[in-house]
Amino acid sequence: MSDCYDSTFLIPTLNKQGWMIDKVVDEYTLEFIDYASKNINYSLEIAAAYGNISLEVLKKGGKIIVNDIEPKHLDVLYSKTPDELKANLKIIPGSCLDDLDIDLESISSVYCSRLFHFFSSEEILKTLKKMNSYLEKKGKLFIVSDSIFHGYNKHHFQNYVRKKSLKEKDPGILRPHEYIFHADPEMQEQMRSNMPNVFNLLDIDLMSSLLVEAGFLTEKAGYFTRRGHYPEESLWNGQEGLGIVAVKNY
Ligand SMILES: C[S@@+](CC[C@H](N)C(=O)[O-])C[C@H]1O[C@@H](n2cnc3c(N)ncnc32)[C@H](O)[C@@H]1O
């Protein structure tokens, strides 16, 4: 099937949870790959889709536990993993909110890319607390997400500012009818049908306060461009992506 994102690096998920980003890597993801591949302990990637980043970690000598809610995504990762690296790969399908059975303080780092913009702040906090409990002392957390400067939010930005000033919990929430989609109706339908019902665009303020509440200290946080990664309608001002590196504080 031809896909509306053929010209980019986005591969559709099998469960209408957006796309996996392939071949292009932001600086936060690069830091995770480096950190995880040099560490002798296992790292964890949640919401990995087909696991291209975890595969990179394995190829560079790291050990990794990989999670996604759609088991078929993880089957693809397993089949792509060279036999000699399979001993360093553990796969746990299921929801990162409820289904992970991981020993406390046993993981050196956690990577979560492009999941939290589908979660409410309550779900993000629950996930962060769980990740904190799995991490060893001073373990690291790497987060990548879509930001409030995603192109879809261009026409809703004043609404976001208003909701933020009213201290609403999730000021960046957009519902499907609010997304700014493709001009071509067929493409528009294709995009709509591959997205979940909530898009919760995130800002550094919100993420920082959730991280503090979950026991993390933020080491680095910033916005970055998705130009060259996302199609034109998803771009805005060069700050479409949000990246965070945090360390377990307690
Ligand atoms: C937009 S894709 C991101 C894939 C990849 N991490 C990336 O950055 O390209 C979102 C992924 O989150 C997974 N997902 C959604 N809800 C989840 C949950 N509760 N627990 C684990 N994975 C989940 C979906 O199956 C999908 O593969």
TrEMBL record:
Q: Which UniProt keywords apply?
A: Plasmid
Ligase as UniProt keyword:
no
Membrane-spanning parts:
none
Question: Is Signal given among the entry's keywords?
Answer: no
Q: Which Gene3D superfamilies match?
A: Vaccinia Virus protein VP39
Q: Which InterPro entries match?
A: Methyltransf_25, SAM-dependent_MTases_sf
Question: The Methyltransferase domain covers which part of the protein?
Answer: 44-139
The residues the entry assigns to the signal sequence are none
Pfam families associated with the record: Methyltransf_25 (PF13649)
Q: What is this protein called?
A: Methyltransferase domain-containing protein
Q: Supply the source organism for this entry.
A: Silvanigrella aquatica
